[in-house]
Specification:
This protein has about 240 residues and is of the alpha/beta class. About 40% of the residues lie in helices and about 15% in strands. Helix 1 packs across helix 8, helix 3 packs parallel to helix 5 and helix 4 crosses helix 7. The chain has a single domain, classed as Rossmann fold (3-Layer(aba) Sandwich). It has eight helices and seven strands. The longest helix is centred in the C-terminal third of the chain and has 20 residues.
């Protein structure tokens, strides 16, 4: 049985992605900052007949937590076929290039960029044991430099600079990671789940968590002829008229 790890899997898009992978026959580790929340999510999936799941404590901002999760999965599975770097935070609602502090940047980057680096580097050895390793980094259309550069347009936000820049950095990390692993079976992509109705958006949006989960899972299930080193946004590009960002 193939194995997958989804970070931030105790709710929202991460939970739905984990569910889809479990439905596709993966044994899925549900990464969660607290084991209690992760166990609740795992119990919910087991109640639906998906017993091929297990909660694992994983705080992407804590290297000891990441290393412990890697040790546990390594001992239990010995291989990891799919890594979905889903855990992320938005930071304060209003963000400004003039007033957002370096500490605010550090807090968001610690999860959205440094956290992905920690997890990816910790698990790369287990991924290399898989004949078809996949990494999906959850990004956003808000990271688009092209859209953001349209400074006079109304279809793109200008008040989330900390969050947006963190995801732009994540996209660049994705491209470079894929390049360094270009002569291997790895498929590594950044994917926007869409404007999704979760706690993250105050339950606003044009996509359900189920729809968003399918968009992420699609790139975790790529065949060997699939793309790598790419960014994908399958909902709205540019943003829909009623989208607040």
């Amino acid at each position: 049985m193939k194995t997958a790890l989804v970070t931030g899997a105790n709710k929202g898009i991460g939970f739905e992605t984990a569910k889809i992978l479990a439905q596709n026959g993966f044994f899925v580790y549900l990464g969660s900052r607290t084991l209690e929340n992760g166990q609740s999510a795992a119990d919910s999936l087991k109640a639906e007949g998906l017993n091929n799941v297990e909660a694992i404590r994983l705080d992407v901002t804590n290297q000891d937590s990441v290393d412990a999760a890697r040790k546990t999965i390594g001992e239990k599975a010995g291989v990891l076929d799919v890594l979905v770097n889903n855990a992320g935070i938005s930071g304060n609602f209003e963000q400004s290039a003039l007033t957002s502090t370096a500490d605010e940047y550090l807090k968001v980057y610690d999860t959205n960029v440094f956290g992905i680096v920690r997890v990816t580097q910790a698990f790369i050895g287990l991924l290399k044991e898989s004949p078809e390793p996949r990494i999906v980094n959850v990004s956003t259309a808000m990271a688009s430099l092209t859209m953001a550069a349209d400074i006079y347009g109304n279809s793109y936000p200008k008040r989330y600079v900390v969050y947006q820049s963190s995801k732009s950095a994540l996209n660049m990390y994705t491209v470079n990671l894929a390049y360094e692993l270009r002569d291997t079976p790895f498929k590594i992509n950044a994917v926007c789940p869409g404007w999704t109705q979760t706690d993250f958006t105050g339950h606003q949006g044009t996509s359900t968590t189920e729809q968003a989960g399918k968009r992420i899972a699609k790139y975790a299930l790529l065949g060997q002829d699939g793309p790598t080193g790419q960014y994908f946004s399958e909902e709205y590009y540019p943003a829909p008229a009623n989208c607040p960002w």
